[in-house]
Amino acid sequence: MRLVRAPLIIELVAIYRVHTPIVAMNSSGARGTRFVTIPRGSLLRVDKDVKLFGLLEITYGSENLEVFTRDIQECAEQLTRKPVATTSLPLRAAQRG
Known about the structure:
7% of the residues lie in helices and 57% in strands. By secondary structure, it is mainly beta.
C-alpha cells in the first residue's frame, strides 16, 4: 500500500477588520437561522472574491457565517490578501487492483 497525496490548491484569502458592527447569519444549525452581531475590531476571513451583491461566506473565529457583500464593503476594511496552499482531499491509501 502506498500513500497518494491530494493535489495542492492555492486559494486567495483576504482578512478584513470590522469598523462598524455587522449582522451575520448562521443557517447551519438544527434550529434554523441564527443571527450574530460581529463587533467592531473583529477580524474576518474571506476565502472568495467579494462580489457586487448577495451573500458572502466568511469565517469569524471558528464559525462559518454569511454576511451581505454590501456590509463587508461598507463596514469593514481589507487588511491583507494572500495565497494560501490547501489540499482538496486528505491523504489516502492507493489500492492496487
